[in-house]
Design brief:
The structure holds two protein chains of two kinds. Helix content of chain A is 12%, strand content 54%. By secondary structure, chain A is mainly beta. The radius of gyration of chain A is 26 Å and the shape is elongated. Chain B has four helices and 29 strands. Chain B has helices at residues 5-15, 17-20, 193-203, 393-400, and strands spanning 30-35, 43-50, 56-63, 70-77, 83-88, 93-103, 106-113, 118-124, 134-139, 141-147, 150-157, 162-171, 174-185, 212-215, 221-227, 230-236, 244-247, 253-262, 265-272, 275-283, 290-292, 299-300, 311-317, 320-328, 334-339, 346-352, 358-365, 371-379, 383-391. In chain B, β23 and β24 (320-328) form a beta hairpin. Chain B is mainly β. Classes of the chains: A mainly beta, B mainly beta. Chains A and B meet through α1, β2, β6 and β7 of A and α1 and β1 of B.
Chain lengths: 303, 401
């Protein structure tokens, strides 16, 4: 229910934003029509010609690294060390995805870009356990692999700088910050291992279990972001490709619910304190909102 | 239509408050499973008490090689539930019996010697160090509790084939003024079946029987144990005959827990041929010599395991008396049921434990008005280990208000 509300809010925001800018575009055209007859300045000196609004869509794939700070486990070992319980995290190994819109204001090489998006980020860790008989013949080994899927509505804001401007190919750098709002989270767990005590000689693998994990994470995810990218202008359309690194600034684990809301705590699982790192690669198509007349047959965008 | 951006900013500020609030005291709420990587090792929890340093002392039983009896096992954990140390008294002492009683700054429990089944009272300090045990002049300890400085305990007097109830006052870690006792026959004749059931309770080769003891506010002592061939709740003032008794049916029906509420009002639970009933308000006629527990109607709880062990305590939660029943469900979870002692109304239910099967051993209030719940779980589906759930004051209030 909570998730539905946030999704509705997000898409309402997008709709309002698009309507808002369509309205702005209409106003701009009206103003341009009015002023065309009275503009006595040379076109290149006109500040109007040095700025542009871009609106478009973007989507891509991302990889996440969960970085543990303080470690936790539901197991408290009696005759082995706590280090044996530490989870092994895989870095940037599971593919996630994202899609959203981009609204960018460009002025003299600098751009301010708002890129709200819906994104799924995934990370994985594993635990290994072993129980041995005194004579060494009876052994049970278990390996739990847990894949976490976190869905966020994210509101990133970037400042971009076009390194090359007078070209169809315009590389840029961007830095910014983001705030993400958790809309859903799942864990899926696979258990495999070997059990010599039951007479088995080969490993076994159980079916994976999927559980809801929304209560294990706080709603917010905030951090800094930076990246590089390339704009390619085709007629009046801009194609954007960028790679962005996101650096989470805080623990995303809900410390209060670490044990109480974790359905896998019974097998010893407890989330560590985690911050997220993420690499996103995105493609976008942007449309200019302001045009000038170059000749009687066509309109060109300002860029 | 213009979109007012300040609405989005206010929204983001409000929802991001959880970043700064995301600091929880790890001692408030936790789950710990105490794992030993030994394949043959198994532990059975009995009771838990919070120590004055905020940590916990756990009494349990451990398996003994080449013996059907279980050994005495003590474990100390810190306030976050992390393991600190263990002590195994299994070479000399066996069959620890609950409760783990808290008197002043010490914790007491009963166990017996392996050679002649003599019962002893053990005192443990905050750090888990055991003092020299005190001989109780009884054997086969079944159950114990304390009312202030008075310890009430029951034992199986195998020589005379009686269940014996006793009372002793502890002062400065020693018994003051001797032990008062009275034994009641488990059944005339040489049946031998009842004796067998009791011994199997100790050797864990059959069902664990619901032995418990208590004292009413009017000064009557009671035990739940065998009397006249049945599991009965026997009320005694240490005179030759019981004051009253609530008889069951052999070992197949009887009470599984009882708390005196005042007058002739009791909160009880009972079992009958595998079924379980919870009765938060029941009148037991203390002037009638014999009544039958199977005639007491109550709420059936088919979700509980057959003949479920039930723990029942009258707790003071946020200055309100609450009856808290604890037991084990067929689905392998620990269930806590809170009832009002005045109306008998169910206030709330809490389930603990996921994934692996869990069963309840005991629970107690903690100094921060939370609850510590001791249970056992089958790690990897097969290795019996202690589990300790700590519920914060808020979590406890959530289902008891």
């Amino acid at each position: 229910m909570k998730t539905n509300f946030l999704q509705v809010l997000f898409f309402t925001f997008l709709a309002v934003a698009i309507t808002d800018y369509s309205h702005a575009q209409q106003q701009l055209r009206k103003r341009s029509k009015k002023k065309n007859g009275y503009n006595t300045r040379k076109p290149l000196d006109n500040p109007f010609l040095k700025s542009q609004w871009w609106l478009g869509f973007r989507a891509g794939a991302n990889l996440t690294d969960a970085v543990p700070d303080e470690r936790f486990s539901a197991f408290s070992p009696i005759n082995y060390t706590e280090d044996d319980l530490q989870k092994e995290y895989e870095s940037f190994n599971l593919l996630g995805g994202h899609a959203g819109i981009e609204i960018t204001y460009y002025h003299r090489g600098f751009s301010f870009s708002f890129q709200p998006n819906y994104r799924r980020q995934r990370f994985e860790y594993s635990n290994d356990f072993i129980w041995m008989g005194t004579d060494g013949t009876n052994t049970v080994e278990l390996r739990y692999v847990q894949d976490h899927q976190l869905d966020y509505i994210e509101f990133p804001l970037f400042v971009k700088y076009d390194i090359v401007r007078a070209s169809q190919w315009r590389p840029f750098v961007q830095i910014g910050a983001y705030y993400g709002l958790l809309t859903g989270a799942n864990k899926s767990m696979e258990v495999s291992g070997s059990d010599t005590a039951s007479g088995a000689v080969s490993p076994f693998e159980n079916e994976s279990v999927i559980i809801g994990a929304e209560d294990l994470f706080i709603r917010s995810s905030a951090g800094l972001a930076g990246g590089i990218g390339l704009n390619y202008d085709v007629q009046n359309v801009r194609i954007v490709f960028d790679i962005t690194y996101r650096y989470g600034l805080h623990n995303i684990t809900d410390t209060e619910n670490r044990f109480s809301e974790n359905q896998l705590s019974g097998i010893g699982d407890a989330l560590d304190d985690l911050t997220l790192r993420n690499i996103s690669a995105s493609f976008g198509i942007l449309f200019p909102l302001r045009y000038i007349t170059r000749n009687s047959k066509s309109f060109d965008a300002i860029n | 239509m213009r979109f007012p951006p300040f609405i989005l900013i206010i929204f983001l500020v409000v929802v991001s408050c959880d970043i700064s609030d995301n600091e929880a005291d790890p001692s408030d709420s936790f789950l710990r499973i105490y794992d030993n990587n030994g394949f043959e090792t198994a532990f059975t929890p009995i009771d838990v008490q919070q120590t004055t340093d905020g940590g916990y002392l756990v009494l349990g039983a451990s398996e003994i090689e080449n013996s059907l009896f279980s050994g005495v096992y003590l474990m100390k954990v810190d306030k976050n539930g992390d393991f600190v140390r263990e002590q195994n008294l299994s070479e000399q002492f066996i069959s620890p019996a609950g409760e783990l009683m808290k008197l002043d700054d010490r914790y007491y429990f009963m166990a017996m010697t392996e050679t002649d089944w003599n019962a002893f009272l053990f005192a443990v300090n905050d750090s888990g160090t055991v003092a020299d045990p005190i001989a109780l002049g009884a054997n086969y300890p079944l159950a114990s509790t304390n009312v202030g400085n008075e310890i009430v305990f029951a034992n199986y007097d195998n020589g005379n084939r009686r269940t014996q109830i006793s009372s002793a006052t502890l002062l400065g870690g020693a018994i003051e003024g001797g032990i008062s006792s009275r034994g009641y026959s488990i059944g005339e004749g040489e049946d031998g079946e009842i004796d067998k059931l009791i011994v199997e309770h100790f050797t864990r080769t059959n069902r664990k029987l619901p032995f418990f003891v208590g004292k009413t506010t009017t000064g009557l002592y009671f035990y739940n144990g065998f009397y006249n061939f049945t599991i009965s709740t026997v009320f005694s003032d240490f005179s030759e005959e019981p004051v009253a008794q609530l008889q069951g049916t052999r070992e197949t029906a009887g009470l599984s827990s009882a708390v005196h509420l005042g007058g002739e009002q009791f909160a009880i639970s009972r079992f009958e041929d595998g079924d379980n009933f919870i009765i938060p308000q029941s009148q037991i006629n203390l002037s009638s010599l014999t009544e039958s527990s199977v005639n007491i109607n109550g709420n059936p709880f088919p979700e509980l395991v057959e003949d479920a062990p039930v723990r029942l305590k009258l707790l003071d939660i946020n200055s309100t008396s609450v009856l808290l029943y604890g037991s084990t469900t067929r689905s392998g979870q620990i269930v806590l049921l809170a009832y009002s002692p005045t109306t008998g109304e169910l206030l709330g239910t809490k389930y603990l434990g996921f994934s692996n099967p869990y069963s309840l051993a005991s629970f107690n209030m903690t100094a921060d008005n939370g609850l510590i719940v001791l249970g056992s779980t089958s790690v990897a589906g097969r290795f019996e280990r202690f589990s300790l759930f700590k519920l914060s004051a808020d979590e406890l209030a959530e289902f008891t208000n």
